[in-house]
Amino acid sequence: MTQLKTLPAKLFFAFILLSSFIPGLASAQRQLPGTIKLQWKKDLEMQQGEASTIKLLNFEGAQYDGSRNSMPYFTGLYTYQYQGFEPVVTLKNPVYEAFTSSAVNNDSPISGDINIKASVVTEKKVKLLGISLLPIRKNPASNQLERLVSFELDIKPGAVLKTTGSKQSAFAPNSVLASGSWYKIAVSNTGVHKITADFLRQIGFDPASVNPNQFRLFGNGGGLMPFLNSVFRHDDLAENAIYVYDGGTPNVFDNSDYVLFYGEAPVSWSYDAADGRFHHTSHLYSDYTYYFITPQLNSSSSPKRIQSQPSSTLTANYTSNTFDDYKVHEVDKTNFIKSGRQWYGEVFDTELTQNFTFSFPNIDLTTPAYVKSNLIARSFSPSNFRMTYGNQLVFQQNVTAVGTSYTDDYAKENISNTTFAPVGNDITLTLTYYPTTSTSVGYLNYIEVNARRNLTMSGTQMGFRDKLSVAPGNVTQFNFSAGSNVQVWDVTDPVNVYKQEYGSGTSFTLPTDELREFIAFDGA
C-alpha cells in the first residue's frame, strides 16, 4: 500500500459527493452567495513512498475525495427554497483562466463541461441543498485547461421529488409466481408489443383455454436493478396495465384476439438535470427484459387494464412542438482482464477510421445536437482519436500513454462531449485513431447522441419526451402531428400506462411538473 507521509490532515477525510454532506467538511450552512471567487494557490506537493512525490491542484477551501491524484472540488451547503422539487443548478457569469500543471493527467476526470452535482439533503431535520463541482474544464474549442476564477450559482426547481414514504416494514408473503400457470417472455426493444393466439401456441400456451378478460401480465420494466438499497424497487413482480382486444367469441382467446403491452429494453435512459442531457445505462447481465403472463390468477383484484387519460382543461403555459430523442452505439465484445463490468467494442488497429450513423427523422436543425464519446487506447506513447462530422472536427480525444510495469493500467481512457450543428436527419460521425507506435491499439466503448426532433409521427412507433416542458406549475400543450389511426400512450410510469385522449390535430394538454414519457403507434 502506498503511504502518503506528508499528506495534509484535511485530505484524510473523504468528501462524499451527493449521498451525504458531512457537517464541518462542506461549506457552512448559509444563504446562497452572489459571486463566488476561488483563490487558487500553489499545487500541494506530497511525498509518495520514500523517493517520489505527487502534486494536487489547490484552492482556498478545496475538498478532496482522498484518492491518489485527487481533484479539488468546490462544495457548498445552502438553504433550499424549492422544497419538493429536484434542484437544477447551473453556472452563471463564469470567469475562467488558462493554466498548466503537472498535477493534471489524462486520468483526471476533466471534460469540456463543469458538471455540477446537486442534491437535497437533510441536516438536523432541515432540508438543505448540497452542491459539488470540479472547477476545471478543457475548453471545448482549444482543448486548453481552464479553471474557474469566479462564478454565480443559478438554482431553479426541476422535476417533482419522488418519495417512497417510510421504510417498508411489510413484504409480500410470497411471489405471485408461487401458484398458477406462468409463461416467461423476453423483450429486447422498448415499445408496444403484441401477443396473439399464434404466439401463445408457439410458447406452449393453449389460447382456447384462456379467457382474454382474465389475462394478466407482470414485470418490473427494463434496466439494471439499483445497486443502492435506498433506491425504490418493487417488492415483487408488479402487474402491468395492458390492452386486451376480445373481438371474436366473447371470453375466448381466438385468432382475432390480441393483447398489447408496453415493454422496456434492458438498456435504460435517464435525464441528468445537471448537464441537461439523456444518458444510457447498459444492462450488464442480460440482453433481454423478461415479463410473465398468466391466463388467470386467484386474486380478489380485477385484471389491470389501460385506462384513458383525458386532456387537461388547465390553460397551457408552454407549447411543445419538438422533443428530445437519443441514440447510443455500444457493442460489448472484449473484457481485457476477464473480470469486472467494463466491456469494449470496435477495435482500431488495422481499420483506423470507422463510421457510425444515427438517424433522427424530422430533426430540428435549429437546435445543436450533443455527442459523448467514451474510448480507450493501449499505447506506450500518447495517442489520440479525432471525431468528425462531414468536414467539421467535432473534438479530439487525447489518450495518455500506458506504463511498462505489470501493475500499470492495461489501457487509458478518454471521455469527451460537445455539441454541433446537424445538417440532416442522418448523423454520420467518423472516428479516426491516430496511433503513435506500431503496437498502439484503440477501442470504442460507446457513442451517445442527443438531438431535438419535430413532434411529427415517424415510423410505426415513436417514443417522445420534452425536457423543456418540465417546471413547477407547468402545463404543456403537446402539438403532435400524426394520422387519425395513431394512438398515444402515456408511459411515464411503465406499470401504469394510460391511453392519452387528444383533440383535433393530435393536440393534448397535461401538467408537466415532472418529465413525461410517451409512445405513439399506428397499430401496424
Task: List the keywords.
single chain; about 525 residues; mainly beta; Immunoglobulin-like; 4 domains; 5-stranded mixed β-sheet; 1 helix; 34 strands; about 0% helix; disordered N terminus
**CATH top level assignment of the largest domain:** Mainly Beta
Distance between the termini: 62 Å
Could you name the ranges where pLDDT drops below 50 across 5 or more consecutive residues? 1-29, 164-169
The biggest beta sheet is recorded as: 5 strands, mixed
Broad structural category: mainly beta
What is the CATH topology of the largest domain? Immunoglobulin-like
How would you explain this protein's 3D organization?
The chain has 524 residues and is mostly beta strands. The protein contains one helix and 34 strands. The protein folds into four domains: 152 residues, Immunoglobulin-like (Sandwich), CATH 2.60.40; 130 residues, no CATH class; 81 residues, no CATH class; 130 residues, Jelly Rolls. The strands form ten sheets. A five-stranded mixed sheet has the order 18-32-31-34-29, with no helix packed on it. Strands 20, 21, 23, 26 and 28 form a five-stranded antiparallel sheet that branches. Strands 1, 5, 8 and 9 form a four-stranded antiparallel sheet that branches.
